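JOB MANIFEST
job_type = single_chain_structure
chain_count = 1
residues = 302
[input]
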Amino acid sequence: MSKTNWTTLNHVALQRRCACGDGAGISGECEDCRKKRLTGEGGGFGGYVHHGGGFGGDSDNPTQTSEVVNNPNPISVDQPAQLTGPGVTAPAPICDPDRALTWADFTGTPPQSTHAAKTSYSFPKDSTSNPVKFRAVLDQPNSWVKPRWKDPTVRANTPAQPLINQCKAYMRAHADGVWTLDATPDSQCPASPTYDSSIEATTVDECDSKIGAEVDRVAGLESTRLLAHEQLHFTIACTLVKKANASVAAGKSVSDIETKLSQVDGTVTNSYDTETNHGCKSAEQTTWNNKVANGLPDIKIE
């Protein structure tokens, strides 16, 4: 568990402009508009109308023309912000990324392992928040997935090409033969999808068009199944962080809650993988999906 304080770095500088588009002074209007206001010209109250909303400019509202300068990640008008002197700081998200994971988030190199994927994350503290808040941050370089599951459309990554080759070899040796896939469920992972044994190849060409297509279909489903299991790992982490933050907000010791968060995460993660056999038990996976969707009501961090 990371004990490094998190510092928000998303600062932006704002340049204020007058309603007419010219540079504005401290008052918020240029000299020409100030003179017009004093003489009753220009319309509006005092010649300057401020509309609510976020920062970063509004193309439909020329009277609000704050422009973001040298900021690679401008703040969206839908994103809450806090004014901090001359710049704007967006609050750090509790979950990062604040969305469902994709295989593109798993950038680490898979080791020699019997596992297909690993989701790694940390719980840094956002010390700019008051009270301090914990965050769940995906550790992308240490999160990995093997090629077979990461990109099932590449046949070199899946069983597709070897099975197609077997089919072709059989059909060349048996002109009137029929080649089908073995639809026996995987005894080690019953939740894995199975092949449709009714799909038959009766020619060499059908080994590609029929057998290959069926292997591609199942490989895609298996990738989706595994991703869903890994996604829930991170959703669990986010759920636990919210519980920890609620306890801190209620006055509990940050240090105590930090220790408790790490302990509970280890226990819950182990239970999740053990009970679902890493997602290979469908019923148990569904049970965990429902528990997490309900906020893990039986889990306390306090």
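[summary]
Residues 92-302 form one domain.
The radius of gyration is 28 Å.
exit_status = 0
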